[in-house]
Amino acid sequence: DAEITQSPRHKIxxxxxxxxxxxxxxxxxxxxxxxxxxxxxxxxxxxxxxxxQDTNKxxxxxxxxxxxxNTEDLPLTLESAASSQTSVYFCASSAEPGGQFFxxxxxxxxx
Amino acid sequence: AQKVTQAQTEISVVxxxxxxxxxxxxxxxxxxxxxxxxxxxxGELVFLIRRNSFDEQNEISGRYSWNFQKxxxxxxxxxxxxxVVDSAVYFCALRNRDDKIIFGKxxxxxxxx
Lengths: 111, 113
Hints:
Helix content of chain B: under 10%
Mean pLDDT of chain B: 92
Shape of chain A: globular
Radius of gyration of chain B: 14 Å
Mean pLDDT of chain A: 93
Largest sheet of chain B: 6 strands, mixed
Low-confidence stretches of chain A: none
Largest sheet of chain A: 7 strands, mixed
Oligomer: heterodimer
Order of helices and strands of chain B: EEEEEEEEEEEE
Radius of gyration of chain A: 13 Å
Low-confidence stretches of chain B: none
Largest interface: A-B, 25 and 19 residues
């Protein structure tokens, strides 16, 4: 069965370190998204991609970057982790015009 | 501006009661999609329904039903005969033409035994 996976599921890191969260989907969807979920804010869009080599900034992109070298993967990199980036991160993918399917989430703690 | 408002932050009902979760949206697009997602205590996001802007038919799926009214920009979700397993956070969302989805802040639903 097609699916979308995220790794790691839990990560603790220190302020200033670079962190990469992986997202892999086997739906063969062109569109992929990264969100963060925080209490009181719901889900907010960080970055998204409509296909290989395409990346776009979302609502809260500062301090994050993504790259899309193939259809299946959209890794999210925190260049220099900050405590404000402690959150739960969700990756999603979609095919026009369907709903987005979400990965299980990564809980990131920045100390 | 695109916006989704879920005015009910938290709702508690006793099991077997019916409960309606409200969702009001704003968009300038004439073509758009509306969604509901469920986030149970385990944390994953579960897709429940998609409705496009040209289809105002209400939908029923088991104990779940959705009422889409363009005239009031609302897409409300009703659970009939609620069960404890329905306890979760429910998100309403709006997708515009560029496929970005805007989420409401969610309604936390507690079903009390």
